[in-house]
Structure formats: C-alpha cells, structure tokens
Design goal:
Belongs to the HisL family. It has no helix or strand. By secondary structure, the protein is mostly loops.
Length: 16
C-alpha cells in the first residue's frame, strides 16, 4: 500500500 507521510506520523512507513 502507498501511504504518504501524514502530519500525525507515529511510525516510520515508506511507500511500497
């Protein structure tokens, strides 16, 4: 899934 870095980011997620 492609999830962009939101304002409320609590975990380091990168676009897959």
């Amino acid at each position: 899934m492609t999830r962009v870095q939101t304002a409320s980011h609590h975990h380091h997620h990168h676009p897959d």
